[in-house]
Write a sequence for this structure.
């Protein structure tokens, strides 16, 4: 295999031109085989095989720097930098990350996981290079989906002032996770498909290239002329008007053409945008037909592309999807907003049923929140469905645009808590802390699938900012008979005993059921409380529990700092309670990628670990 010749960075340069197409084929086959077993981001990686190869052929790593926006498309980059043997452990605990990681390789210039950051980071690296008197190249690779994020445009606006080389590669596959939306997508479509421009451009270049000695110089001159042929034929020439030198569009699966254009981009003094057109999932028919499904794929059967493991139980996203569809029928003021993830957040059904009340704003969480605030100010009831880790990107908008005005915006926060294989950048372990710190915000978490439905109904009837956070994975269907009506700031006492009181939030209620069972088998009396509301705190119930229990145990799938447990401890301290409080939460650190159950054991929030801590604490009283 030609791929076996790649043992470290820059080995690709030792291959002949004839070997490169075969290497591309072998890389695709390798990725399909490995990801079919481990799961991972397949479609995006299959789309950038040739682009990655061309970058490695034209750059010298690790001296030159490549910053991958989001980073889920970096698998080929990892293969070409000698990490082939690690793919059996891809996204597993202690194994190869599914994203670039500086501590994993010197060839990973910047850690990424969220979108729209690469141009800013690359610009910083390029400026640092200049200040240090160095002369290497810096390349930021950003997808057209990520270009809907405002930060990318802020960075490009700043990059236009560069007076030294900085290369931005726009990987244009007409997709983010789902199909792209908005004006930028329309603009790029017009650039890609303007036949008059492409035909004239290609014909002109072919003719000029035949001129001895001067042909290539003339071509470069034409490409750099702002008022040249492109402005007459390509609508707007948006990037050049911003002050960036625009090259392209280029076939992203043609290695020769890519290499020629990258080498040309290296000669430009200033910021240059190289527009590359690729196909997501290229080379694997199921991924080309269903690009959204193969964005983040579970282990699958290669022949069919179907998941190996069939889902039996509904997950929380499914429950939310069903509730939203029903809510759309009942309440005409309800509108749904997503940031480029209608499938991932469960809003696709709502969008199909109520297209006039469904809004996909692209990868633009900040805009999504303020857009929702505007709709709420006009009397609508917006539901912003978003992953926990992505909502972090809109923290200021939650404070400034929603909560200061006490607007009725509902935040449906999916993937809250540990999400597993995507690692540090995607763990939703901070939302209870950052949301609880905001005045006017109400924060809830359901114990099971029925309570998620009840909380959504409560949220629609509520008047003010309200967030409901729920985890990734199968929805808990235990405790079905416990379904007390939801009252603002009121906990639900499921089992009322003495000695030890377990106050569990959301996903940790299931763990608390297991903990209580183990403690009772040991002879301890144990109360179980479903702390439905992280904010506001149920002061009345806390006073009662502190009066007839020796130990209160708070349980949350969130970091300790600023979380639910600290809020409980603060209130009990205010009222002078002497009851002992044990906080079960996540440590003050970023949690690596890996299986969620294993991660819970590692950080000490699984049932067995919690029981041991409780017994040790209780004995010490």
């Amino acid at each position: 295999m030609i791929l076996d010749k790649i043992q470290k960075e820059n080995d690709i340069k030792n291959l002949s031109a004839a070997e490169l197409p075969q290497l591309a084929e072998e890389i695709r086959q390798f990725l399909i085989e490995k990801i079919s077993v481990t799961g991972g981001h397949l479609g995006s990686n299959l789309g950038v095989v040739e682009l990655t190869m061309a970058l490695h052929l034209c750059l010298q790593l690790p001296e030159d720097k490549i910053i991958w926006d989001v980073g889920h498309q970096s698998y080929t980059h990892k293969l070409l930098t000698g990490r082939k043997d690690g793919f059996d452990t891809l996204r597993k605990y202690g194994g190869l990350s599914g994203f670039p990681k500086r501590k994993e390789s010197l060839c990973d210039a910047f850690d990424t996981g969220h979108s729209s950051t690469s141009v800013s980071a690359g610009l910083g690296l390029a400026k640092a290079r200049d200040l240090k008197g160095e002369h290497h190249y810096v390349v930021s690779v950003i997808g057209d989906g990520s270009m809907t994020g405002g930060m990318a445009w802020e960075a490009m606006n700043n990059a236009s002032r560069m007076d030294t080389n900085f290369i931005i590669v726009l990987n244009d596959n007409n997709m983010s996770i789902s199909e792209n939306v908005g004006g930028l997508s329309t603009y790029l479509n017009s650039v890609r498909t303007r036949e008059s421009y492409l035909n004239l451009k290609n014909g002109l270049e072919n003719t000029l290239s035949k001129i001895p000695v001067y042909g290539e110089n003339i071509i470069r001159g034409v490409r750099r002329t702002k008022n040249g042929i492109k402005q007459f034929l390509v609508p707007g020439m948006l990037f050049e008007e911003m002050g960036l030198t625009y090259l392209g569009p280029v076939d992203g699966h043609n290695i020769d053409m890519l290499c020629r254009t990258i080498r040309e981009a290296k000669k430009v003094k200033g910021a240059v945008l190289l527009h590359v057109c690729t196909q997501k999932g290229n080379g694997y028919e199921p991924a080309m037909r269903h690009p959204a499904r193969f964005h983040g794929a579970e282990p699958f059967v290669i022949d069919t592309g179907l998941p190996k493991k069939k889902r039996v139980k509904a997950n929380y996203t499914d429950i939310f999807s069903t509730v939203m569809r029903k809510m759309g029928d009942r309440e005409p003021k309800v509108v749904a907003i997503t940031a480029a993830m209608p499938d991932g957040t469960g809003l696709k059904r709502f969008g199909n049923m109520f297209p006039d009340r469904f809004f996909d704003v692209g990868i633009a969480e900040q805009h999504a929140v303020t857009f929702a605030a505007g709709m709420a100010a006009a009397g609508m009831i917006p539901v912003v469905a978003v992953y926990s880790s992505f909502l972090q990107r809109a923290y200021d908008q939650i404070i400034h645009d929603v909560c200061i005005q006490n607007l009725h915006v509902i935040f449906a926060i999916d993937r809250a808590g540990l999400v597993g294989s995507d690692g540090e950048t995607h763990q939703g372990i901070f939302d209870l802390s950052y949301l609880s710190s905001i005045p006017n915000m109400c924060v809830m978490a359901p114990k099971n699938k029925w309570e998620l439905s009840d909380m959504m109904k409560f949220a629609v009837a509520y008047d003010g900012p309200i967030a409901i956070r729920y985890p990734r994975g199968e929805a808990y269907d235990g405790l079905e008979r416990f379904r007390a009506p939801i009252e603002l700031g009121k906990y639900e006492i499921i089992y009322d005993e003495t000695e030890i009181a377990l106050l569990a939030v959301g996903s940790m209620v299931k763990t608390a059921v297991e903990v209580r069972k183990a403690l009772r088998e040991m002879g301890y009396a144990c109360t179980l409380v479903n702390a439905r509301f992280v904010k506001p705190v149920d002061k009345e119930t806390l006073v009662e529990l502190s009066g007839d229990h020796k130990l209160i145990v708070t349980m949350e799938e969130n970091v300790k700092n600023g979380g639910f447990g600290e809020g409980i401890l603060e209130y009990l301290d205010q009222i002078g309670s002497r009851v002992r409080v044990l906080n079960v939460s996540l440590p003050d650190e970023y949690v690596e990628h890996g299986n969620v159950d294993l991660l819970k054991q590692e950080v000490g929030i699984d049932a067995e670990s919690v029981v041991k801590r409780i017994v040790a604490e209780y004995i010490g009283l």
Confidence is low (pLDDT under 50) at residues 192-198, 225-233. The longest strand covers residues 549-559. The chain has 25 helices and 17 strands. The first helix runs from residue 20 to 38.
